[in-house]
Amino acid sequence: MMRLLIVGNPEEIHIGAHFRDAANTLGIATALCDTRAAFAARWLARQWNWRVRGHRPPRLEFFQRVVLETCEQFAPTHLLATGIAPLTRASLIALKARGVRTLNFLTDDPWSAAQRAGWFLRAVSEYDCVFTPRRANEMDLRRAGCARVEFLPFAYNPRVHFPYAGAPDEPACCDILFAGGADADRVPYMDALLRAGWQVDLYGGYWERFRETRGAARGHVDLAGLRRAVRRARICLNLVRRSNRDDHVMRSFEIPAMGGCVLTEDSPTHREWFGEEGAAVMYFQTRAEMIEKARWLLERQAERTRMARAAHVWVTTHRHTYRDRLAAMLEMD
After folding, report:
1. If you classify domain 174-317 with CATH, what class do you get?
2. What's the pTM value of the predicted model, to 2 decimals?
3. For the chain, which residues make up each domain, given as ranges?
4. Which CATH code fits 3-152?
5. Are 292 and 277 in contact (CB under 8 A)?
6. What pLDDT was estimated at residue 50?
């Protein structure tokens, strides 16, 4: 009988929680080791380990004991780690020696400057299989010694990513919504939208740190708040993360699942999924094109409604839930 130990963050916005929900719907006995425990230290210790010791969690050794003790008690057949999980090479070897199949859904690019960590790169080849949502990492992982690498996109969680059921005549809250962190290369896009004179709402961390976007910063929002904001926004902007070498992101599925009208950064993967321009989403490659497409959409409410419905139908009828992803991983294993 399959028993799954997830190593991830259980907060509702994180993939660890999405995979736990997926396992529950599949009837798989599941336990979760909360990766936040590896980072639970004073601010100075966190900064020292992150900046000086190569992005190292300050309680990395403690967390290894937590995982191994959980394995003793729960006896999993499979372990699924999410992202740059705080598991060392020695721990993965010990887990495999106990007969545990070790999998990783690698949410981030471990070779990016923001994420690169020697301790993780030494460990990654010990996973039995690494699933990556970015083509750019497939060859990198094979060169790093990973025995098996599989491409597997992000997804959505129908328990939390669904349209807000508010009043149908509830007024719009903004012209354009963006939910995501304030990477420096994203700021010029938001600045261009604000300079065009539109109401822009920016959810996520650090937008208040930039002069150009400070007035549009709305802080962090829970999923209930995000569902409501998506429903009330005329356009939802979707940007890939260049530092991660992405060609799609979690929002590529989550925003359509929540019923938003999507203006997305152009990529081969987005085109493969959502089809030609205007079928379900609009695409842009440059800031000037983004402004042009945003203006076109803002002037056409009926088109926004039609595309939002088409994108929602496509995402929700083509096996793009985290249940589908988990089932695929376990079938391929």
Report:
1. alpha beta
2. 0.94
3. 3-152, 174-317
4. 3.40.50.2000
5. no
6. 83
